[in-house]
Design a protein that fits this description.
Layout: E1 24-36, E2 41-52, E3 57-68, E4 79-86, E5 93-103, H1 107-152
Parallel strand pairs: 3-5
Antiparallel strand pairs: 1-2, 1-4, 2-3, 4-5
């Protein structure tokens, strides 16, 4: 298990770039941690702008990567971090966090806005299903009336 030892103030994680055997190479990226996992993993997100020639404008795109979160750094949700590429650590992890840069101030606002949009979409879906079921009920009532009139004749 990779745990911090109180005497040495270091971790004994084999995949830690500072206290283990992992060598760093390649890309260096900065972004935000959007999710942490129990197995020393985290999901990293970087926003970027992509130019579209046809419309001569930029669009927002985001890159999401699974990264290794060493116990000596222990980045939390909403932290700004610097990550660096390394050898494949698992099926999806090719990056490791090397430095915590602070906390993203707008992270909570982004999350709240995302949740509000999800709630609005759900309300809209509920209204649409209610309208569809109301129409079906009206049609059902019309059919019942027609059957009653035919049976009386």
């Amino acid at each position: 298990m990779a745990k911090l030892t109180k005497q040495e103030n270091t971790c004994n994680d084999k995949k830690c770039p500072f206290h283990g055997t992992t060598r760093l190479r390649g890309l260096v990226l900065e972004g935000t941690i959007i999710k942490t996992d129990t197995h020393r993993s985290a999901t990293f997100e970087k926003d970027r702008k992509f130019y579209i020639n046809k419309f001569e404008r930029y669009e927002k795109r985001r890159t999401r990567l699974h990264v290794h979160n060493p116990p000596c750094i222990n980045a939390k949700k909403g932290d700004k971090v610097r990550i660096m590429e390394c050898k494949p650590l698992s099926k999806t992890k090719n990056f490791v966090i090397i430095k915590k840069l602070g906390h993203d101030i707008l992270f909570k606002q982004k999350e709240e806005a995302l949740e509000e949009s999800k709630v609005k979409i759900k309300k809209k879906e509920i209204k649409e299903t209610e309208q569809k079921t109301d129409v079906k009920k009206e049609d059902f009532e019309k059919i019942e009336k027609v059957k009653k009139t035919q049976s009386q004749v």
